[in-house]
Each structure stands twice: as C-alpha cells, then as structure tokens.
Amino acid sequence: MDLTELRAFLAVAETGSFAAAAQRMACSRTTLTRRIDALEARVGAPLLTRQPSGAVLTAAGQIMAQRGPLLLGEASALLRAVLSEQVKQPQKLRLLLPVGMPPTMLGVAYQMLRSQFPEVRLSAEFVSAELLATHVDGFDVITHFGESALPGDRWVTRPLVWLREWLLATPAYLAQHGEPTSIEELATHRLLSWDAPGRDPDRWPTLAGTEFAVEPLAHGPDVHFLRHLAAAHQGIALLPDAEVAEPEFPPGTFQVVLREVVGSTVPLCVSVPVVSKRSPQLVPILQAIEAFLAAV
Fold first, then answer.
1. Which of 139, 164, 146 is nearest to 241 (CA)?
2. Is 211 helix (H, G, I), strand (E, B) or coil?
3. At 90, is the pLDDT very low, low, confident or very high (cuts 50, 70, 90)?
C-alpha cells in the first residue's frame, strides 16, 4: 500500500473535506483527489462518497479510517528502528576527490574526521574533472572544482570554499628569467597550466573577466604535480591556491606574478546524492567538513 495515498485518505476522513485535507497535506485538491482515486483502485472499493456538504465514509472507508493510523504508526516505528540500527553500524564513507588535492590538507581533514567520527571507515578515490561525470555512481560525497560539474536532478551541490587562482613562480626562477610586468611578457617565459574544469589550458583568465592565449610547456589536472614543477624552478604556473601551509612548500617558496592582472576565483564544491541529503549519518560529517575548511 502506498503510504502517501493512505495519508491523503486519512486527511479527508479526519477533516470531512477535500479542501481542508488538501490544505493540511500542502498539496493541490487535484493531487489529493488523484491519490485517493489511486487508493480506491488499489483496494478495489470506494472509500468515500462525495457530497455537496463534504465527504462521507463508505463501509470500506470506515475500516480504512480505523486501521489506517495503526499502519502509519507501524511504518514510522519501522523507519525509526532501521535508522537507529544504521547509526549503530560502522559506516563506510566513499569519497570522490579531484586529483591534485594537497596531501597536507587531506591528512589534516582525515585526522579531524577520525577524531569526530571514529566509527566511520573512509574510502577515497581521485578523478580528473573530465572523467568526473562518468565515475560518480556509488559515492557518498564528491568534492570537485566548479559548481556545475554534476547534474542537478541527481545531486545537491554547494560551494565549500572559494580558491584564488593565480600565477606562481619561485624567486630563483624570476631572478634568472626576469619577472613579467605585463601579459605580453609572459610569452617569453616557460608556462605551466592547470586544466581547470570547462576551460582550455591554452586560455588563461584575467581578473577583468577576459581571457588571453598562452602556449604552456606542461599542463594537466593535477594541481599538486604542477606546484612541484613550479617549486623546481621549471616555470610560472597558473594554479588554484587554498593558501594552506604545506611543509613541502614553506613560506617564500613562491612569489605571485601579475597579482592584480591574471587569475580568477574557483569554487571547491561538495555534492551529495539527492536521496541522502538528509541522512542522519551524512549531514554531521558534511557539517564537520565545512567547519574544517572554514577554519583552515
């Protein structure tokens, strides 16, 4: 039996009115009527007699009105029991992450999750942006760059933090090759480009909202790999930066180039399946992740 149809019938039985029942159920009268018609078709007998003064229960309707609340109560008790058992069981949380996330940040985030949710078993996989849409099945939480990476009918997406995307180079590289003071001067330098979602790596953004053409010697989706290349004095890299302290790159490792000219802001987002957005296990974990990113 469809519990939504049963609730619609009980609302009419209790109020004696289709209009009042529709208001209680927060739906249109047409929707309410359709649900009751479906219930009557399911049981094979009329449950209500429509009259100008309201709705009157038939003999079958009286039985349904007497026993229907018991069925709803049993269904609610069953749901509470199942959810309670889920809370007791060790939960496996499957994460899908973009390639190139800083290991330091991931390590600290893992320690935070372990301290707050010791019963959770974590499974993490990494994927590049162009393969994201074909690798989402079976995951509980997906972290990705860009707000429109996943279809909205299956996923609920919200930004966790906005990252500054800018040009980075080591002082040693700039001392040897000179620091560019304009976009045109970048053409004389070795360039490293992050494959940002939905953007050609041969097109770089400006803070004014325009783009310009470049010819990078190396590009890819792995931010951390490109950061290592830049740290090895291999060129000027366009990268998103969470501005999180990393032992591998102590202060002074990089210098920002054309700070007020080249770059953009990129959202790091989290997506969860629509069916689990109110999960009693998942919501506290998402809140903890958001609090962690706000604090770093």
1. 164
2. strand
3. very low
Question: Residue 7 corresponds to which tokens in the numbers above?
Answer: 């609730």
Alpha helices in 137-266, H assignment, sequence order: 171-177, 223-231
Q: Which two tokens stand for residue 296?
A: 């770093």
Assigned token pair, 111: 């320690």
Q: In CATH, what is the architecture of 92-161+268-295?
A: 3-Layer(aba) Sandwich (3.40)
Which comes out higher in pLDDT, residue 176 or 109? 176
Q: Which fold, 163-265?
A: D-Maltodextrin-Binding Protein; domain 2 (3.40.190)
Looking at the chain, the domain(s) classified CATH 3.40.190.10 span: 92-161+268-295, 163-265
User: Pairing between strand 264-273 and 155-169?
Assistant: antiparallel
pLDDT digit string, tens, across residues 209-253: 999 999 999 999 999 899 999 999 999 999 998 666 678 888 899
* Tokens matching residue 109: 């985030």
What's the fold here for domain 3-88? Answer: Arc Repressor Mutant, subunit A (1.10.10)
pTM exceeds 0.70 for this model: no
Nearest one of 99, 106, 159 to 131, comparing CA atoms: 99
Distance, in Å, from the CA atom of 59 to the CA atom of 289, rounded to the nearest integer, reads 55
